[in-house]
Amino acid sequence: MIGRRSLGRQFGWLWAAYAVSAYGSGFGFGAFPLIAILVLHAGPAEVSVLAAAGLAVGAVVAVPLGPWVEFRRKRPVMVAMDLTRFAALISIPAAFALGWLTFAQLLIVSIIVAAAKIAFNAASGAYLKALVRPEDLLVANGRFESTTWTAMVVGPPLGGAAIGLFGPVTTVLADAASYLLSAAGIRAIGGTEPRPARTDAPRLRVGDLSDGWRYILTHRALRSLFFNTLGVNGLIMATAPLIAVLMLGRLGFAPWQYGLAFAAPCVGGLMGSRLAARLVARFGRHRVLFTAGVLRACWSLGLAFIRPGAGGIVVVIAVQFGLVTCMGVFNPVFATYRLEHTEKDRIARTLSAWSVTSSASVAALTALWGLLASITSPRAAIAIAGLLLLVTPLLLPRHDHTTSGYEGGRADEVVPDGSRRVTTSAAMAIAAATAKAAAMPR
């Protein structure tokens, strides 16, 4: 019953807002590259610029947003960021209908959406910690994670069908509408929100811009997780375009086969997110975090061995299922761990700094791996990324820093789980529980 208990009406509205936004994003997944290719006849270089520049410039734009969010009520900020994304996205179908759509507009919209997403995530993390009890954080994050993976199972296939039936900007219109509905859901939460400190500050201080990074780098547990997640997320995302080139180009898979190979394994993410709270209750938070973090680094190398035909599809589905299941376990535990180890008056700045760095590193590694693939081959670049991922578990925190984790400030208020090391029983339990969950009713 650990994952079924009620977290209250206010959390219900927040979850509903998150769900409609997640399904909208899943429905519109990959819409920008498709519009660039099908409508604006962009080449590979322009599509790569669209993917990398949107993340990189959006991250730079978002740097001052972290401290700005910190010293304001979080719910109005979340509503504002949803409305900003709605306004930016709705301009694309409007311009398309008038015949005014350009590549520059796509690029500007991608930057605005990326920056608004970082600010929204920073505000929502701080708001969630204030909204639910500390012992319910893992359940709440597990529900968000399961919603994300469900949206990724359902959204992209439906979005692809909608594009085929109604045109390439259809999914962008639906994604824009989802942000409008999300803003309405957040407004419906109601209640009062405490006034943050320093609301009367006339302007941001220079120190505010770097305080998030300073907090992360002087905190033993967060520092380790910071570099681990940067490496894992960056290497996985950097190889995504190369896998598409390999499968759709050299190996001759049809687009529907490519979509199926990556959509079907997302069921593993749903299963993993439902298992996370049960595993933590049995083995302890830190042990599950470490074990799932190690296991998620062991799969991607298999994507370097994709072959043509049905066997190749089976390899991709098996590798992705293992990876996504481990991520489904890891992500909600990680999100909870990070919130618990971050002081309330630094959450927005810390999460913003984290997201900014993650977006910038993904953009940089995507560009670097594209260059590496052009020098060697897509398969070789995928293999190198897979080998480097095997090293990333060395960056995971080896111990559960439950007290005085922030060496330069106050002690963290975290409930210890008593775990200090990983045993093979935890890894076996994750695998066994995953298999058992496949037969459970949803």
Could you describe the 3D structure shown?
73% of the residues lie in helices and 0% in strands. It is mainly alpha-helical. It has a single domain (9-437), classed as Up-down Bundle (Growth Hormone, Chain: A). The radius of gyration is 21 Å and the shape is globular. The two termini are 14 Å apart.
Query: What is the averaged pLDDT score?
Result: 81
The CATH class, by name, is Mainly Alpha
CATH homologous superfamily name?
MFS general substrate transporter like domains
Number of strands: 0
The main pleated sheet reads as: none
**Structural class by SSE content:** mainly alpha
Determine the N-to-C terminus distance. Answer: 14 Å
Q: How much of the sequence is in beta strands?
A: under 5%
How many helices does DSSP assign?
Answer: 17
Our count of domains comes out at 1
- Morphology: globular
Report the uncertain regions: 403-442
The CATH topology name reads: Growth Hormone, Chain: A
Global Rg: 21 Å
CATH architecture: Up-down Bundle
Order of helix and strand elements from N to C terminus: HHHHHHHHHHHHHHHHH
List keywords for this structure.
Growth Hormone, Chain: A; about 0% strand; about 450 residues; 17 helices; mainly alpha; globular
